[in-house]
Amino acid sequence: MKFGPRKPSLKKMISARTSPKRIVRHNLGLKAPRGWGWLTNPKKAAYNRIYNRTTFSIWDLLKKLFR
């Protein structure tokens, strides 16, 4: 498991927001409500919860500095 800052990737940021799968899911409204990750994929939800609490984004750091 990673601790500390995450290394930003511009390529991954753009591809995550413009993927065909995401566009279709958002247009058809096929998203599960917030907090339902435990029901759809518990293993991934547990990993993501730990990962998001032990790492931070450089962009989050910049937001805190320039408030």
What does this structure look like?
- There is one protein chain.
- By secondary structure, the protein is mostly helical.
- It has one domain (about 5-65).
- Helices cover about 65% and strands about 10% of the residues.
- A two-stranded parallel ribbon has the order 1-2.
- The longest helix is centred in the C-terminal third of the chain and has 13 residues, at about 40-55.
Question: Strands, helices and their partners?
Answer:
Layout: E1 4-6, H1 10-17, H2 20-28, H3 37-40, H4 42-54, E2 55-57, H5 58-65
Parallel strand pairs: 1-2
Uncertain runs are: none
Major sheet: 2 strands, parallel
Output mean pLDDT: 89
The tally of strands reads: 2
**Helical content band:** 55-70%
- The number of distinct helices, counting runs of at least 4 residues, comes to 5
Helix and strand content put the structural class at mainly alpha
Strand content: 5-15%
Q: Could you write a compact summary of the structure shown?
A:
This protein is mostly helical and 67 residues long. The chain has one domain (7-65).
Keywords:
extended, two-stranded parallel sheet, 9% strand, 67 residues, mainly alpha
